[in-house]
């Protein structure tokens, strides 16, 4: 199976590349493509924009720029498919996987968890959080 990679970030709802494991030998690249509007099918759903055309990043909904159809953020994101290219940190196996883009709470952090196809070890890709103790210099 060969996964289609995005040509640019404007095609994606989510994209990340991460090093995994204690010794950083694991690797995961995860991307989630935006879907066409379920109502009109003409345009890709995205975050709404203000009157100046600036994207409202913290909006809790997605909107169609063509017809104005709106969908709740959680429901829309859970209907999407995550594409994963990975190198397992425990066995070194390189593989590709597709799964529903449903994050679960693991130790209080939103996490996309999948299993290695060879050793069945759980691999977590966590949502990046800003460290509240870190100081910006």
Structural notes for this entry:
Helix content is 4%, strand content 38%. The strands form three sheets. Strands 1-2-5-6 form a four-stranded antiparallel β-sheet, with no helix packed on it. It is elongated. The termini are far apart. The mean pLDDT is 87.
Sheet-strand content, in percent, reads 35-45%
Helix and strand content put the structural class at mainly beta
Would you report the number of β strands?
A: 9
- Helical fraction: under 10%
Strand order of the largest sheet: 1-2-5-6
Distance between the termini: 45 Å
Shape: elongated
Tally of helical segments: 1
Characterize the largest beta sheet: strand count, sense, and whether it forms a barrel.
4 strands, antiparallel
Uncertain parts: none
| Whole-number tally of structural domains | 1
- Order of helix and strand elements from N to C terminus: EEEEHEEEEE
Layout: helices, strands, pairs:
Elements: E1 12-20, E2 26-33, E3 61-63, E4 70-72, H1 73-78, E5 81-87, E6 94-100, E7 104-106, E8 109-115, E9 122-126
Antiparallel strand pairs: 1-2, 2-5, 3-4, 5-6, 7-8, 8-9
Short description:
This protein is mainly beta. The protein contains one helix and nine strands; from the N terminus they run ββββαβββββ.
């Amino acid at each position: 199976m060969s996964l289609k990679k995005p040509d640019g970030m404007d095609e994606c709802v989510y994209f990340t590349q991460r090093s995994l494991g204690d010794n950083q030998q694991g690797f995961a690249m995860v991307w989630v493509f935006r879907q066409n509007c379920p109502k009109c099918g003409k345009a890709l759903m995205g975050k709404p924009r203000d009157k100046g055309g600036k994207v409202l990043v913290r909006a809790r909904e997605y909107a169609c720029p063509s017809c104005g159809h709106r969908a709740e953020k959680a429901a829309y994101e859970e209907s999407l498919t995550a594409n994963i290219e990975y190198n397992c940190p425990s066995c070194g196996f390189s593989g590709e996987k597709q799964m529903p883009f449903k994050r679960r709470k693991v130790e209080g952090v939103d996490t996309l968890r999948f299993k290695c196809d060879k050793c069945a070890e759980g691999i977590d890709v966590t949502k990046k959080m800003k460290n509240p103790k870190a100081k910006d210099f």
